Automatic annotation (TrEMBL):
Protein name: ATP-binding cassette, subfamily B, MsbA
Lineage: Bacteria, Pseudomonadati, Bacteroidota, Flavobacteriia, Flavobacteriales
Domain ABC transmembrane type-1: 73-338
Classification via InterPro entries: AAA+_ATPase, ABC1_TM_dom, ABC1_TM_sf, ABC_transporter-like_ATP-bd, ABC_transporter-like_CS, P-loop_NTPase, Type_1_exporter
GO cellular component, one term: plasma membrane
Subcellular location, principal: membrane
Pfam families xrefs: ABC_membrane, ABC_tran
Length: 609
């Protein structure tokens, strides 16, 4: 059994009731599919007056003679009706019998499909739910290596492909094979000689069809991978539209996009060619078998006269009835290959090990009492060391600023404090407890983060700020906006706090977006605040507004300020000057100026970029 098939089973188990009914109705469909053709025989016997007169009710002689018992039973009633009511009544009975069998066949097909639909849609929902839980739980480091578009393609396209193609396996193992099996049993009852003759040709056509679909899975995988790349291009182009337009780079991105869709076109055409060939090829092979049957069976009827003509017509109907499921099997087997390729990509993400998780006995820490300490930390992202033997203690209620040139390791400290990345060497402690020994939820509950990029969502101001505290009242939101120096512009908006701010807050200026980010952190009201270059992307006027907001927010709070600009850190209790992952100086603003070292040089050069 394919590995990916095994992995889908736990998702399908939840719907075992629907799977049971799907299989039951498929068995009944297959049975009535055969009976609908068998029922044509008495109809033709009545029409062509070939039926024997049976004037006594037949006796039941066990399951092995069920076929002849059913035939004699039917002939008894046809004879009785013909004699009592005239031939048109017996004709009416046989027509009604044919209609009934076809009605039941289609009813069972509908019921089987209904239950299968519920399984497919239920598994789709559960897979998406599991997939989203996984992608949102994976650490930030995972996405620095992967294309977001590829993850989106797996989440949306590949999961859909699993739903559309994968569950055809139920048709492959139950519905179509049983339809063929029942038809073959009926055919063997009619003429064993003829059926053995058919069996010579079926494996040949099966071999040809299998050959066509051999490379389908790898081609499907390549197409799905390319689809992920395509979504990435769209997502990145839209995300950086201002840069694309300002650099007149539309042509460059169009070129990348067009190359990708051309590659996808070639792959899809190749997959389509094989998929489209499956149905006509299996039908043609089937017709070849039927043609050979006509020749050989015609001989049995006309020359040897060992086969009843009406039975031969029913036999041909049954043989043709094998063609539709055979076509469906070849089509479904190709679709399942697509589904397997898609499932592989889905499970690739679901099985990624999350390196940043809670320990089984993790502490749920709800208060911050004494200090934060970073002890002997060595850290690197890939090969280049970012922090070297870094140690720092931040007492409760103090503001500590980290300054230095780009690449000195300042933002890495914010990443380690929040456990976006995990420390490999050294420890991060809060009140003497290793941050790895605390639950992620409680650790992050103690912290508020305001980053250089104000990350806002396409929603109202209210809902963006509520992320900080989801059960907050409107009054609390307005109070947070006031502290963040943001209410003065929010109150003038058409719908106040219920105004939608557009994609990534696109309807607002940089300073306004940053003040909303600060209001979100204020509403959360954590004891520890991390400001990662919160003003570096702002103009001077906006910076003044934001600076007031930051000062309001930092009162009576432990703050770690990562900064380029002098204005944000002059009042800090401790300024730590970093260079290439090491502390070169530390002290207050005035102390460091008198030292006339690197900090004084940075101030002189105004290098707080």
């Amino acid at each position: 059994m394919d590995e990916n098939l095994k992995k889908i089973i736990p998702f399908a188990k939840k719907f075992k009731g629907h799977i049971f009914w799907n299989i039951t109705f498929n068995v009944l469909y297959a049975l009535f599919s055969t009976l609908s053709f068998v029922a044509l025989f008495p109809l033709m016997e009545v029409l062509f007056k070939m039926n024997e007169r049976v004037i006594e009710l037949p006796k039941y002689n066990g399951i092995m003679n069920l076929g002849s018992y059913g035939k004699q039973y039917l002939q008894y009633y046809v004879t009785k009706l013909s004699e009592e009511e005239g031939p048109q009544y017996s004709l009416l009975l046989t027509v009604a019998l044919v209609i009934s069998t076809f009605l039941f066949k289609n009813l069972f097909n509908y019921l089987a499909s209904q239950h299968l639909t519920k399984v497919k849609n239920g598994v789709l929902r559960d897979l998406r739910e599991k997939m989203f839980s996984k992608i949102i739980a994976l650490p930030v480091s995972y996405y620095s290596e992967k294309r977001k578009g590829d993850i989106m393609a797996r989440m949306l396209g590949d999961v859909n492909e699993v739903q559309n193609s994968f569950f055809m396996i139920l048709e492959l193992i139950v519905k179509e094979p049983l339809t063929i099996l029942f038809a073959i049993i009926a055919m063997m009852n009619i003429s064993l000689k003829l059926t053995l003759f058919v069996f010579i040709f079926i494996p040949i056509s099966g071999f040809i069809i299998t050959k066509i679909g051999k490379s389908l899975k790898s081609k499907s995988q390549n197409a799905q991978k390319e689809n992920g790349f395509l979504i990435s291009i769209v997502e990145e182009s839209l995300g950086g539209l201002k840069v694309v337009k300002s650099y007149n780079a539309e042509g460059y991105f169009k070129n990348i996009f067009n190359n990708s869709i051309d590659k996808l076109l070639r792959l899809n055409n190749s997959i389509g060619k094989k998929n489209n060939l499956a149905s006509p090829m299996s039908e043609f092979m089937g017709i070849v078998v039927i043609a050979i049957l006509l020749w050989y069976g015609g001989n049995l009827v006309l020359v040897e006269q060992s086969l009843n003509g009406a039975l031969f017509i029913v036999y041909l109907g049954l043989a043709y009835n094998i063609l539709t499921p055979a076509k469906a099997i070849s089509k479904a087997s190709y679709a399942v290959k697509n589904g397997l390729a898609a499932a592989e990509r889905v499970f690739e993400v679901l099985e990624v090990e999350n390196t940043i998780t809670d320990k089984p006995d993790a502490i749920n820490k709800t208060t911050f009492e004494h200090n934060i300490s970073l002890e002997n930390i060595n850290f690197k992202y890939d090969e280049e060391i970012v922090l070297k033997n870094f140690s720092l203690t931040i007492p409760k209620g103090k503001t500590v600023a980290l300054v230095g040139q780009s690449g000195s390791g300042k933002s890495t400290i914010a990443n380690l404090l929040t456990r976006f990345y995990d420390v490999k060497e050294g420890t991060v402690k809060i009140d003497g407890i290793n941050s790895k020994d605390m639950t992620l939820h409680s650790l992050r509950d103690l912290m508020g983060l305001v980053t250089q990029d104000s990350i806002l969502f396409n929603d109202t101001i209210k809902n963006n700020i509520l992320l900080g505290k989801q059960n907050a009242s409107d009054d609390e939101i307005i109070e947070a906006l006031k502290i963040a120096n943001a209410y003065e512009f929010v109150k003038d908006l058409p719908n106040g706090i219920n105004t939608n701010i557009g994609d990534a807050g696109g309807k607002l200026s940089g300073g306004q977006k940053q003040r909303l980010s600060i209001a979100r952190a204020v509403l959360k009201n954590p004891p520890i605040m991390i400001l990662d270059e919160a003003t570096s992307a702002l103009d001077t006027e906006s910076e003044k507004f934001v600076q007031v907001a930051l000062e309001n927010m930092m009162q009576n709070r432990t703050s770690i300020v990562i900064a380029h600009r002098l204005s944000t850190i002059q009042k800090a209790d401790l300024i730590v000057v970093m260079q290439k992952g090491e502390i070169v100086e530390q002290g207050t603003h005035d102390e460091l100026l008198t030292k006339n070292g690197m900090y004084a040089k940075l101030v002189t050069m105004q290098s707080f970029e």
